[in-house]
Structures are given as C-alpha cells and as structure tokens.
Amino acid sequence: MRVLPWVYLALAYAFVFLPVVVLVAFSFQDGRLPVPPFKGVTLDWYAKVLTDDDLMAALVNSLLVAVVSSAVALVLGFLAAHALARVRLPGSVLMRGVLIAPMTVSYLIIALGLLTVFNQLGIRPSLWATGIGHVVINLPLCFAISYAAMGDHQKSAERAARDLGASEGQVLLHVSAPMLAAPLAAAFFLSVTFSWDEFIIAFLLTRFDVTLPVEIWSMLKSGLSPATNAVGSLVFLVSVTLVILLEILVFRRAK
Which spans are transmembrane here (predicted)? Predict the structure, then answer.
C-alpha cells in the first residue's frame, strides 16, 4: 500500500508536465512541423526566435508591463492592507471583499469592462492600458498576501516607532515594509509571473506594441512550427526561473 501514494504522485506529475516535456522536445525538431516522428536535434529554431525583432520587442514589452504593473499593484495592495489591518473603519469587511472580488471574475469580463471604460475616456489600446489591466488583476493578490501576513508583532513594532517620533511614512518605509519583506517579495514575484503569461487582457488592450503571449498567438495563426515551441519553451524557462528565485531568495530566507 505504500507504493500507491508514489504511483499517484508520479501520475500527477506526468499529467502536469508531459505537455511541457513534449513542447520542449519538439522545439529542437529538425523539421518544419513539431510533430512525430522526431527527426533530429537542431538549435536553428532558437536562433530564429532570438534574432526575430518582433519577438524580442514583444519580450521587452512583456517584461516592462510585468515589472511596472506588479510594482504598482504591490504598493497599492500593501497600503490598502496596512490601512484595513491597522485602522478600524466602518464597512471594513465590505472593503476587503470589494478589493478581493476581482480574483473571482474572469479575465475576459475584466478586459471587456476596461475596454469599455477606456473607450469612454478616450484612452487608446496600448501597453499603458494593458499595464492598468494587469494592476487590476494583481492588486487583489498583493492585498490578500499582505493582509494575511500582518500580525500583532508588526503592530507593536509600529507603535514603538511612533512613540520614538517616527512619522507615518517612516513607519511604513522603515518598519512595516521590512518586516513584511518575504510576503511582499512573494506577492511581487507571483504578480510578475501572472502578468508575464497573461493573454486575454493584453490581446484586447494592445494594438501595435504587443506583449509576448499576443505575439505568440499571431505566430500560431500561420500554423504550427517548432519556432512557436521554442518561444513557449523560453516563456516556460522564464516562469520557472522566477519561481526558483522566489523559493531561494524569499521562502528559504523566511524559514
């Protein structure tokens, strides 16, 4: 009976990672189509991807949107969490529910709503519009992680800092934020990962300067190619690298 948990675990990992293994394997296909039989190993598709100006521009756009929107979402989420955790406000439970509500809404609904609002305001589809959309979807995550990490020991340290003459801004910058460094870093890295892979909002809110998922979608319209597998493998590599850095730099240090 002890074998059954290991069998279950192996099947679960195979179910999750088998598509990724196939994707990566056929990105090295020495042929025009990423389908069996495997004809040999080549790095030509990676060379083609890395020398494609449109793909590299989309890669830079994705990194820019992911980092900036995640930073904005983290700051806003942390400030909202600190206010609702430290100050008793009427309707604070309702406020928390409203802040977390976007996590339960489909990205398609959020994207359509933002597109309608931007059209009314005269804001054209762009990377800035996409960044605002990513702030909307990542702010609830940053708020939830920050709020859950705030405890009484931070409150005592903040009170001591105020008694010693620190202003509210100094308390936030030099006491509250450093004590929550690990949760805040986790929220930031998770937001970057979600923004990096997000497609629907980026597709509806960009026009000429597109992000990498949108560029990959435009490549798929012309048919399957090992080049698309190579791009997918690079995206997967970046996502895995972020998760590993999060584990090494944040969670292990916190432990």
Answer: 7-28, 55-81, 93-115, 127-150, 171-196, 230-251
Query: Which tokens sit at 205?
Result: 């809110």
CATH assignment of the domain containing 30: 1.10.3720.10
Nearest-angstrom CA–CA distance, 46 and 234: 9
Cα–Cα distance for residue pair 121/117, rounded to 1 Å: 6
At 45, is the pLDDT very low, low, confident or very high (cuts 50, 70, 90)? confident
Q: Tell me if 227 sits within 8 A of 31, measured CB to CB.
A: no
User: Using an 8 Å Cβ cutoff, are 195 and 66 in contact?
Assistant: yes
At residue 253, the pLDDT reads: 56
Confidence of residue 56 (pLDDT cuts 50, 70, 90): confident
Residues facing residue 29 across a β-bridge: 41
Give the mean model confidence (pLDDT) for residues 39-60: 81
Q: Does 213 have pLDDT greater than 80? A: yes
CA 74 – CA 144 distance, rounded (Å) = 11
Give how many domains the chain has, as a whole number.
1
- Name the residue range of residue 240's domain: 3-254
> What CA–CA distance (Å, rounded) separates 193 from 196?
5
Cα-Cα-Cα-Cα dihedral sign, residues 52, 57, 58, 63: positive
